[in-house]
Amino acid sequence: MHIRSVYHTLAGGYPLIKSRILGNPNTGTSVAQSAKGGYNERMQYPQLFSTHKKKIIIGAPILFLLLINAGVSLSGNTYRLVPEGTVFTTVADAVPIRLEVTTKSAVNAMGGTVTFAPQVLQADAVTRVGSIIDLWSEDPVIGNTAGEIHWSGGVINETASSVTGTVFTIQFHAAAVGKTRVQVTDGQILAKDGEGTNILSGTESVVVYVRLPGQPSPDINKDGVLSISDINSLYLHTFGDYAEMYDLNQDQDLNWSDVMTLINLSRSESSDRK
Q: May I ask the CATH architecture of the domain 3-31+71-211?
């Protein structure tokens, strides 16, 4: 059943829908189914600048001009992908991500496709327990070769003027080192307006970073987000003593190469999914 068919069926009224539902579609799981020589607290600023002026001159302009894709809170009729754990993970770890929907008006049907880089993540199952979807016109189907999960369904609620809740949760595992943006494409949220108007106003994606076990995390400040703050913190650590947790390229030295490793990882690229 196509999402538009669901819309028109729902528009026909609750009694008709009730007769079409067999059992409870919300139960169960769908499975496809140098050491640095330099800085100490007694060092005066002129000495500090003289010792590290090359780093300062080269690094500062780049850091000030660097643009990082910061998270933006959405409002309106939206899809949002929410990690249930850290996005800084290691190969073979579980990576559960929840798809949420929020609307400001009544809706009848919704659908779309979740995409991801299959060389970085693989989906093991889609859990629908507690889903706001009452009638699935297309069960979530996992396509790990293409890196896609398609779905569509309807919402039965005669009185609700808005919808907020979980559509489903994807149980991923980290397949290989890399990063991937998990996002909704071809999204639809069809209004209960007699026309089936697509009122989707925005989507919020999530980027997952996968490294080998034992490698340092790029989340330098441990706030769960990769941002300019992490780059600035790492840059300052290159003035101090060696610490393995900041040696991102694992060359046994803290230098500008580590900072560039983090900058490259932080860049928002349309090629995250290939």
A: Sandwich (2.60)
